[in-house]
């Protein structure tokens, strides 16, 4: 409708496109009726677009920018992550200083299962899943987890924007490859993958503690221990061969 009005109005200037007028207030101030008509139409369209624009667009842009700066947030705090939790917590702590409504482990319920998003903002209708990987094999596993989350968060109209943040300890893959992976898998456009690279490692067994059920180490045998074992009357000295009874 508006375009038809624009065409009808502009047709009046069909033979006057080169005409230039002089302002009555200042002869040096030139104007063009066709250009005035175009400018008025453009201003009207701009007003309509601004009225239908997402009121949270700028906040969402800032939110996404912070996610992309995750390696620098960790580096500023001297954090070398060993797990997903080591990435998720400092990121959450930073986000909540900018977006006070940010929460952790936001539940998204279905009939038989409840999914929990790592980070979310109800005001922005946005959820974030954080994944941590050291190499390409781990990244593939984390992708499987994201696909499960995509299905789990679908159908809840409260959430309209989703970010899958992949933090890798080395440059495992280019961000464009993950984006292409999402396209090939026909992931909904409401999901945005973000790939960032930083430092990282996995905890060693010593840091994790002994494995459950693992045999304990034998005590170190010192010369004093040997002497005590061979002392007459000690248990080691009186031990009998297998199958032989002690005494008569």
What order do the helices and strands come in, and which of them pair?
Blueprint: H1 2-10, E1 21-22, E2 30-31, H2 33-52, H3 57-68, H4 70-76, H5 84-98, E3 103-109, E4 114-121, E5 126-133, H6 136-153, E6 161-168, H7 175-184, E7 191-197, H8 205-208, H9 223-229, H10 235-238
Describe the structure.
With 248 residues, the chain is an alpha/beta fold. The protein folds into two domains: 2-52; 57-197, Rossmann fold (3-Layer(aba) Sandwich). The chain has ten helices and seven strands. The chain has helices spanning 2-10, 33-52, 57-68, 70-76, 84-98, 136-153, 175-184, 205-208, 223-229, 235-238, and strands at residues 21-22, 30-31, 103-109, 114-121, 126-133, 161-168, 191-197. The strands form two sheets. It has a five-stranded mixed sheet with strand order 3-4-5-6-7, sandwiched between helices. The chain starts with a helix and ends in a 10-residue tail after the last helix. The mean pLDDT is 77.
Notable traits:
17% strand, Rossmann fold, 248 residues, alpha/beta
What's the short version?
The protein has 248 residues and is α/β, with parallel strands linked by helices.
